[in-house]
Amino acid sequence: MVPRLSSGWPSRLFWWRAARTPGAHGQPSTRNGASRVPPGVSPRVLAGGGPAVRRGSSSPSSRGPEVALTCERYPVRRLPFSVVSEEDLASFERIVPGRVVTDPEELEASNVDWLRTMRGCSKVLLKPRTTEEVSCILRYCHGRNLAVNPQGGNTGLVGGSVPVFDEVILSTALMNQVISFHSVSGTLVCQAGCVLEELSRYVEERGFVVPLDLGAKGSCHIGGNLATNAGGLRLLRYGSLRGTVLGLEAVLADGTVLNCLTSLRKDNTGYDLKQLFIGSEGTLGVITAVSILCPPKPGAVNVAFLESPFYVLVETSGSRAEHDAEKLGGFLDQALGSGLVTDGTLATDQRKVKMLWALRERITEALSRDGHVYKYDVSLPLDRLYDLVTDLRARLRPPAKHVVGYGHLGDGNLHLNVTAEAFSAPLLGDLEPYVYEWTAGQRGSVSAEHGVGFRKRGALGYSKPPEALQLMQQLKTLLDPKGILNPYKTLPVQA
Ligand SMILES: O=C(O)CC[C@@H](O)C(=O)O
Ligand SMILES: [Zn+2]
After folding, report:
1. 3-class DSSP state for residue 301?
2. Which of 14, 385, 403, 406 for a ligand 1 pocket mutation test, highest count of atoms within 8 Å of Cβ?
3. Is the CB of 419 inside a 6 Å radius of any atom of ligand 1?
4. More confident: 4 or 261
5. I need a surface site. Which of 27, 201, 203, 274 has the fewest CB within 10 A?
6. Localized where (predicted)?
7. How far is the CA of 388 from the centre of ligand 1 (A)?
8. Alpha-carbon torsion angle 280, 286, 289, 295, nearest 10
9. Lowest-confidence range among 2-16, 168-182, 189-203, 231-245?
């Protein structure tokens, strides 16, 4: 069911299909089992709808019952870090005056993840504005053996951005300044706490685009994007952050500032150290500033939305509207003529393009309204991408409600989501390790783009050999010997 497109042409390509598990309740399906609209997306949205809901836009407390403490739901033991004392709070107050948050209500939003499935019990949140302040905080915490949870927009889906116990939360929210923008090369240098959507607006006003786009753009921070090596909606077109990031600045666990914030296109001076921090999820250092290459804003954008039983969104971007329209028209004629595609709609004007993208971007939000969501984010060979979904639909019974498969077709990335009314340990047992074994059987990856965080660290062995895991551990010990940075995350669970 994959439309054949000339290689390298589509800039973004997504798909989804939804169906109920046997015996589950939910919205009516069409005869072939596919919903007419993506799950949870109302026809009103299809017809024009409201603005896209941003991940993180609704406060956790406004969305249902109390979230269970992570340490009560999952088998995890607190490591022997110190406990924050009154004296520590006074020291923090000297480092970031007026920006030490201890109010439990304010802390709640930072202790709970966006999915509302993980909750820490941190007693303090710090809001530095500068790299020097981050350095002082880490030097202090290192000396006192206090664990630290670096936090950006808290939009992650693997529990990497919230504390597991009482880690000090170090937020980048106030580190939101653009440092420089080069109007010829498109090189953007900014602090880590800049919100992705605001950066997008900033560079688009100057004729460029950020090479990264996500449903969570309204809340996520660029530093968090780098720390998690976020993939997102433009990866097929512009490649991963590992290619578009030119440099970064990070603060190490002991407070050392590592300034690799270059903007050079070529720099072949030995190890590419910035790559260590991209995707390290705050376990090796706290990213404080980034330098990123922004491509020119495309002059023409076309979006095609093609229909059933799979829904595919194809975006093309180029510089000459007539040329692009002709190519896309040729493809659509061929796809419709061959019966590969049954129906579709095409958009070139901004409003409709945005509306079509909202359908895709809001699936995560829609799923979160369906109860507890078990999320898997796997890379698979393209010809097996959907088999895992079909397989699970046949296997699972209630309390599973919906098994939804969507993702990034062009990247071979399946987002497998299983919903249930509430968390169920037996259902988790039905899903894991089955999903991971299935993925490993295809030589796939158990985390295509969401990272490892707290949730996937037990599954790393399905995608990396023991030697690679050992090297990861050695690097962690080298850079953070006391293990204070984002503990309980990203590295394999220690026996
Ligand atoms: O919610 C998910 O499973 C995927 C979220 C995100 O990576 C997306 O592609 O929309
Ligand atoms: Zn995705």
Report:
1. strand
2. 406
3. no
4. 261
5. 201
6. Mitochondrion
7. 17
8. 20
9. 2-16
Query: How does residue 204 score in pLDDT terms, banded at 50, 70 and 90?
Result: very high
Burial degree of 368 (CB within 10 A; 0-12, 13-18, 19+): buried
* Residue 191 confidence (pLDDT) above 50: yes
pLDDT at residue 474, as a whole number: 98
Distance 14 CA to ligand 1 centre (A): 11
Q: What is the pLDDT of residue 15?
A: 53
Residue nearest to atom 7 of ligand 1 (CA): 232
- Quick check: CB of 463 below 6 Å from ligand 1? no
Helix (H) / strand (E) containing 109: helix 104-111
> And the tokens for 47?
């017809």
Distance in angstroms (rounded) separating the CA atoms of residues 270 and 278: 17
**Packing angle between helix 434-441 and helix 387-395, nearest 10 degrees?**
150
Average pLDDT for 184-195: 98
Place of tokens 């017809």: 47
Assembly ipTM: 0.99
Q: Does the beta carbon of 215 sit less than 6 angstroms from any atom of ligand 1? A: yes
Which ligand 1 atom is the nearest neighbour of the CA of 231?
7
How many residues make up the chain in this entry?
495
By residue range, what is the domain housing residue 136?
69-171
**Which three-class secondary structure state does DSSP give residue 162?**
coil
Same domain assignment for residues 88 and 22: no
How far does residue 233's CA lie from ligand 2's centre (Å)? Answer: 7
Q: Which of 136, 171, 206 is the last residue before a domain boundary?
A: 171
Are 74 and 156 members of one domain?
Answer: yes
- Find the CATH number of the domain harbouring 130: 3.30.43.10
Per-residue pLDDT at 54 exceeds 50: no
Q: What would the pLDDT profile of 4-22 be if each residue is shown by its tens digit?
A: 222 223 445 555 554 444 3
